[in-house]
Write a structure and sequence with these properties.
This protein has 9 helices and 8 strands. The chain is α/β, with parallel strands linked by helices.
């Protein structure tokens, strides 16, 4: 029986909801404008079932090989987001299963996604991942290369860039991440002013367990929550 696990999850979600609502209130935003992606890379498929049962419908996975068995069990019940670094040779396994890809960060990946989209006769919904912080340990397109990237991908008919994603530095004080999130929001406005047909930015995927409230205050529409949501011993 997983009743106790589900109740613990429901309680954690309640506390998170309170914090999201407060962050929305502080920034004069509507609660419905912010969606939770449950990061499930470290949990088994049963936890995904629990998440769906308590009302979390957006599931985020980082590794293709770990995600596929979970998708086979629950893929038709939620909205699946691929949020990890994506190798081009794994594109065939992701497109057609995951509704959104949050880690478009280089031209070779765009080409592979476009090719697979053409094969499946679909348009792949992508988030352009930007390395706002400039950390060498993080993936993501340099902001200096965004305009050139959008020009190079403008003729790709089977990808659509509807959002931006970034990862802030891991710091003790979440307030230190604010400038990173604010810059991503500024890039949303800048890209939309350029008016590329394939890149109308509607979503901002930013903020994780340690800094999601700051991200919401700066405009996040998706927050990616792992430990705070799915690990009972962490907050």
């Amino acid at each position: 029986m997983r009743t106790s696990e589900r109740e613990q999850l429901r309680e954690r979600l309640k506390r998170i909801e309170e914090r999201i609502t407060a962050a929305c209130h502080r920034s004069n935003r509507k609660r419905e404008d912010v969606k939770i992606i449950a990061v499930t890379k470290y949990v088994d498929a049963e936890v995904i079932g629990d998440l769906l049962d308590v009302g979390v419908s957006h599931i985020g996975e980082n590794r293709v090989q770990d995600a596929l068995p979970k998708y086979e069990q629950y893929g038709d019940q939620g909205t699946w987001h691929f949020i990890g670094h994506l190798q081009t040779n794994k594109v065939k396994d992701v497109v057609g299963r995951f509704t959104y890809i949050h880690s478009l960060d280089r031209l070779s990946l765009a080409e592979a996604l476009n090719k697979r989209g053409k094969q499946l006769d679909c348009v792949v919904s992508c988030f352009l991942q930007l390395n706002i912080s400039g950390e060498k340990t993080k993936f993501g397109l340099s902001p200096n290369d965004v305009l050139a990237f959008l020009r190079e991908t403008s003729n790709m008919k089977h990808i659509r860039i509807l959002g931006l994603m970034t990862m802030a530095p891991h710091v003790e004080n979440p307030e230190e991440t604010r400038t990173v999130f604010r810059q991503l929001a500024e890039w949303k406005e800048r890209i939309n002013q350029w008016d590329f047909a394939h890149a109308t930015i509607e979503e901002l995927s930013m903020g994780m367990s340690g800094d999601f409230e700051v991200a919401i205050e700066e405009g996040a529409t998706y927050v990616r929550l792992g430990s705070i949501l799915v690990k009972p011993d962490e907050s």
